Amino acid sequence: MFFAVITILPEMFTALTEFGITGRAIANHQADVLLINPRDFTSDNYRRIDERPFGGGAGMVMMAEPLAKAIDYAKSQALARGKSNCPVVYLSPQGKTLAEPMVLDLCEHDGLILLCGRYDGIDERLLQQYVDREISIGDYVLSGGELPAMVVMDSMIRRLPHVMGDNASAVQDSFVDGLLDYPQYTKPLKFGEQAVPEVLLSGHHANIAKWRFVEQAKRTQARRPDLWQAFSPDKQQQKWLKDSL
């Protein structure tokens, strides 16, 4: 999976490229990350990539020309790697909110060209002419698109084959089946006044599966009723729910 990230702060991405699951995936060549600074595509001595907005107003706006050149370079690098299906994604609070189904859809591509905005935004003409889709990670505003880009990349890289072993852990994560995850326990058997639920110590796999699903259902109903409303349990799950009443 190829990621080209257009950012004026490439140093921020060491958190993703050098540590944890994503760092190992990159070191093992399961993911390829190219960091592109649009300042390298400016023509003035100050390497300026922002200007005052037409019409006035507070803040500065990122100019279209250096970003367009950076995107063109990213596309050429993708093609040089044999990656032809790499849409340009702008990280923006105006985009569609990232969710697990979108992550799975993004993983169908050869990679992404991620455009990280700063200041008061990007010239609209660049967005209309070069950007294929906009993605948000929530209804709030950040200082720039770098953190959202890392969120998108992390959510995708951990989904790649063999990145997380047999990927069993990724399959069982929250949202993968439309529900929140079930409670998890490990040693010691008792912490404070709370003990590990007996069913988890039973070795009875069917009973454990039932308990975990019922706990998922309870947690999702209580914390994310919107997810529960959209969830359709299969026949086995319907029986488990009926038995738990």
Question: Quick gist of this model?
Answer:
With 245 residues, the protein is α/β, with parallel strands linked by helices. 38% of the residues lie in helices and 16% in strands. Strand 8 (190-191) and strand 9 (194-195) form a beta hairpin.
What is the strand arrangement across the widest sheet?
Answer: 2-1-6-5-7
Topology order in helix (H) and strand (E) letters: EHHEEEHEHEHEHHEEHHH
Sequence stretches where pLDDT stays below 50 over 5 or more residues: none
What is the rounded Rg?
22 Å
> Which structural class do the helices and strands define?
alpha/beta
End-to-end gap:
46 Å
The best one-word shape is: elongated
- Please summarize the sheet with the most strands: 5 strands, parallel
Q: What is the total tally of β strands?
A: 9
Count of discrete alpha- or pi-helical segments spanning 4 or more residues: 10
Q: What do the pLDDT scores average to?
A: 94
Strand content: 15-25%
Q: Bin the helical content.
A: 25-40%
Key terms for this structure?
5-stranded parallel β-sheet, two-stranded antiparallel ribbon, 245 residues, 10 helices, alpha/beta, single chain
Would you kindly provide a written description of the structure presented here, covering whatever features stand out?
The chain is α/β, with parallel strands linked by helices. The protein has helices at residues 14-17, 20-27, 64-80, 100-106, 124-130, 146-157, 168-171, 205-223, 225-230, 235-244, and strands spanning 2-6, 32-36, 50-51, 61-62, 88-97, 111-116, 133-136, 190-191, 194-195. Strand 5 (88-97), helix 4 (100-106) and strand 6 form a beta-alpha-beta unit. Helix 3 packs parallel to helix 5 and helix 8 packs across helix 10 (235-244). The radius of gyration is 22 Å and the shape is elongated. It starts with a strand and ends with a helix. The mean pLDDT is 94.
